Amino acid sequence: MRHVHFTDGNEIALLHSGAAFYPALIAALDAARVEIYLETYIFAIDDTGILVRDALQRAAARGVVVYVINDWLGTGRVQTRQLKQTLGAAGVQHRAFNPWFRRGVARSHRKLCVVDRQVAFVGGLNINDDFISDSGHAIPLPAPRWDFAVRITGPLVHDIYREMDAQWLRVGHMKLKARWENFKRLRHRPPVPVHGETQAALVVRDNFRNRRTIQRAYLQALGRARESAFLANPYFAPGRKMRRALEEAASRGVKVTLLLGVGQFAMQDAVAHSFYPKLLRAGVRIVEYTKTQLHAKVAVVDDKWSTVGSSNYDGLSLFVNQEANVVVQDPAFSQYLREEIEAGAATGRVVHLSDFQHVRWYKRAAYGAAFLLYRTVIHIITLGQDA
C-alpha cells in the first residue's frame, strides 16, 4: 500500500451539491485552453448531462484535447454508446470503463476532473440531474441530492492529473502520435502555482497498489480521534475493522456521529440496521437523513482532518471498486465541512437503541438474513479479503 502523500500550498473550495458544483465545473471547462480529463461513474443524458456534454464539445471545437471516461455499468450500455457517438463526432476522446465486465466485477466509481493541469475537481457528484434519484427509476427527489465535491488549485492538481492520465492508459492505449502531440502542447506549461495554505492528498483505491488505502486513512483518523468524528455516507455496510474503529472511538469518549442515507434500497437499509444495536450500545450517534437522497461521502475528525470523495462505507467501495477521495488537513476547511454535516444531521431522524428493543422477530431475522447474504456475496467477490 502506498503512503498518503500530502502537498502544501493548495486552495480547496467546498462545493455543496449540484447548484455549486456544476456551474464551477462548466466554467472551468469553458476556460480550458489545452487539455481536459473527466472521469465519472454516471454520465446521464439529462438536462445536467447535456450542459456538461456541450461544454466538453465546445472545448474540443476550440482545439482543447478532451478525454472522457465513464463507467459502462454506472452510465448504462445504451447511454454509453450514445455518448461515445456524440462526443466522438465532436472530437472528444471517449472510453468506457470495463464494458461487459471484461476485466472482472470492479467498477470505476470515481468522480474526477482536471483542466489544463491547473484546476481539479474531486467528489461524490456524478454527471446527472440533482433532482432525480440515481437508483435507475427516474424518481423525482423532494430536494436536491445532498452531496459534496471540492475545487482544487495548487500542487495537488498535478497528483490528480497523473492519476487520471494513468487511468486513461489503463482503460485503453493512447497511440504514440497522439501522446507526442499532447506532450508538445503541454511541455511549455508553467508549473502549478501555490494558491493557498491547505495541506491535502489524493487517496485512491484500486486493485493494484492501493487496495486498502482509503480504508486505512479512515482507520488512522478514527484511531487518533480525541474529541469528535462526523461521518456522512449513503451506503453503510463496512467490514468489521471499520465498525470496530467507530465503536472504539466512541468508547474512548469521542463524539461519533454517523449521518446515513436511507430509503433508496431496502436491502441496503436492512444490512445497515443489522449493525445499529452494537454501534448504539458503544455510544455512536446515528442519524438517518430523510429530507432527500443523501449521496455525500464525507467525514471530519477533531475539526482538523477531513475527507471528500466517492468512497462509500460498503464492501464494494472499500474492497472492490476504484474510488478517489481527497484528504484535507486544515482546521478552517474541516470546521466548515463539519458545520455542513451537522446542519444535515439537524434535519434527520435520530436513531435510539430503544427503537430496536421492540422490533418484531421477523424484522430482526430479515436484518440478519440481509447481512449474511451481503457478507457472503462480498466475501466471494473479494476472495475473503474483506475483513
Automatic annotation (TrEMBL):
Keywords, sorted A to Z: Cell membrane, Lipid biosynthesis, Lipid metabolism, Membrane, Phospholipid biosynthesis, Phospholipid metabolism, Transferase
Family annotation (Pfam families): PLDc_2
Subcellular location: Cell membrane
Enzyme class: transferase
Membrane topology: Peripheral membrane protein
EC number, as in UniProt: 2.7.8.-
Catalysed reaction, written as an equation: 2 a 1,2-diacyl-sn-glycero-3-phospho-(1'-sn-glycerol) = a cardiolipin + glycerol
Gene3D superfamilies noted in UniProt: Endonuclease Chain A
Gene Ontology MF annotations: transferase activity
Residues annotated as catalytic: H109, K111, D116, H295, K297, D302
CDD domains: PLDc_CLS_1, PLDc_ybhO_like_2
Domain PLD phosphodiesterase stretches: 104-131, 290-317
Predominant cellular place of this UniProt entry's protein: membrane
Function according to Swiss-Prot or TrEMBL: Catalyzes the phosphatidyl group transfer from one phosphatidylglycerol molecule to another to form cardiolipin (CL) (diphosphatidylglycerol) and glycerol.
Family, as annotated: Belongs to the phospholipase D family. Cardiolipin synthase subfamily. ClsB sub-subfamily.
The protein, known as: Cardiolipin synthase B
Organism taxonomic ancestry: Bacteria, Pseudomonadati, Pseudomonadota, Betaproteobacteria, Burkholderiales
